[in-house]
Structures are given as C-alpha cells and as structure tokens.
Amino acid sequence: MVGIAKTIEQEVTVGERGRLVEAVPHLEEVAARWTGLLEGIDKCWCSNGLGRFYQSSGQWVEAERCCERSLEISKAELGDRHPDTA
User: Fold this and answer.
1) In 32-59, where does DSSP find H-type helix?
2) Entry pTM
C-alpha cells in the first residue's frame, strides 16, 4: 500500500481517482492500524496519499484528517525541524 500511496501525485486527475478508488479502503486500514509496522517516513505515505486523494475529490474534512495524521507522525518520527515535517 505504501508503494501505491507513493504514486499519488499532488494534483490527482479524474483518471487517477478512478484507479485509486479501490485502494482507498486499504490505504485507510494501513494508515489507521498498521502504520506502526512501517519504518521512518514510510509511516506518513498512506496518510499523505489519502489526503491528496480526498482533496482532489473535494472531501475537505477527510483530507484535513489525513494531513493532520501525517503531520503528527512526521513530528513524532522525524522531529519538528525536519524538512519532511515542514
């Protein structure tokens, strides 16, 4: 799932949303339950990808939830001053 999340661009097209819609429940599951098994910055990828997906769909509450989760993970794993946290 991290590999799929890494393919989600900042600007998600309609075609990409169609490709990703089946992966979203799985990405949610990894982000919610399995993040602790991942290493370093990989812990952020599912939440980042979901945030991008939801933002492209106009689902702002879901996008914000995912981006905030990603930020919390990044702060915990990398610290406040790391470029990826910024």
Assistant:
1) 42-56
2) 0.87
